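Helix-turn-helix transcriptional regulator: structure, please.
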Amino acid sequence: MSIEIVFGQQLRKIREERKLSQEELAFLAKLDRTYISLLERGKRRPTLNTIFALAGQLNISPSELVRLVEEKVEK
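Here you go.
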């Protein structure tokens, strides 16, 4: 499975655990809602700035977010 797909799955999982809509997360992270959707579907690659913005709004460290993706990719 591609890194983009796994990142999107993890992003969606964490966002839903935090009970945020795509629109709410996008607003908080100062991103476009459609970009969140594209990330969650694995259609876009997040930049480092995006990873930091999303992690900050999801109350998770950027390194933890990357670690979660890394764990799934290695399986």
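Notes: Residues 3-74 form a domain with the 434 Repressor (Amino-terminal Domain) fold (CATH 1.10.260.40).
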